[in-house]
Amino acid sequence: MRLTELTDEELALRARAEPHAAFEVLYGRHQGPRYNFLLRQGSPPGRVDDLFQTTFIKAFRALSSFREEARFRSWLYAIAVNVVADDRRAARRRGPEAELHQSIPAPEPRASETPEGIEMLDRVKGVLDDLQPNHRLLFILVRFQGLSIAEAAEVVGMTPPAAKVTLFRTQKLVGERLASAREKIS
Questions:
Q1: pLDDT band at 185, cuts 50/70/90?
Q2: Mean pLDDT within 133-158
Q3: Is residue 6 part of a domain?
């Protein structure tokens, strides 16, 4: 059987014996979703590449601790969440970063970005930033990353029923705030 035909969980277990080949398949399957997830966590774009690499390095090193009954995808998201949290704690210890925007030219805006679109995107980011961290993480994992509520609940540290209620309330709140934002733009 070819490695690409195995499930993530089977690959994670096989990676203990033949780490490079099996983990390479896992990396290929999960690089896009994990990178997008890290981008959505609000880290500076320049840090996302480092966080992405750190996530996969930690996953590779921790393969021996992967439990057979666990879902690999949830396990990998949990590692990514911890990498982001560690990076935020380190950033607070380092203090404010030096402003480099004066020496780096700003990228040209894309033609498809209208002022209204940019304003709405800023409002969406603002609404998400106002959420409690676990609620925002749960919302992002389910709505943007495609995890089931049970998988996201495991990553966030909630029971599935609590996550379902929290997600319902969060979606309602986000919808209400964005509806009022749309009315202001119109």
A1: low
A2: 88
A3: yes
Determine the Cα–Cα distance for residues 115 and 102; give it in Å rounded to an integer. 23
The residue among 96, 126, 151 that closes a domain is 96
Q: Do 83 and 172 lie in a common domain?
A: no
Stated pTM of the model: 0.68
By three-state DSSP, how is residue 168 classified?
helix
- Residue 119 CA to residue 58 CA, distance in Å, equals 37
Helix (H) or strand (E) holding 153: helix 149-156
> Which are the contacts of 151, defined by CB distance < 8 A and separation ≥ 6?
71, 73, 74, 77, 141
Q: Which domain holds residue 172?
A: 114-186
Here the CATH number for the domain that contains residue 40 is 1.10.1740.10
71 token code pair: 């879902």
Number of domains composing the chain: 2
DSSP codes of every residue in 124-184: HHHHHHHS-HHHHHHHIIIIIT---HHHHHHHHT--HHHHHHHHHHHHHHHHHHHHHHHHH
Over residues 159-180, the pLDDT tens digits come to 999 999 999 999 998 888 888 7
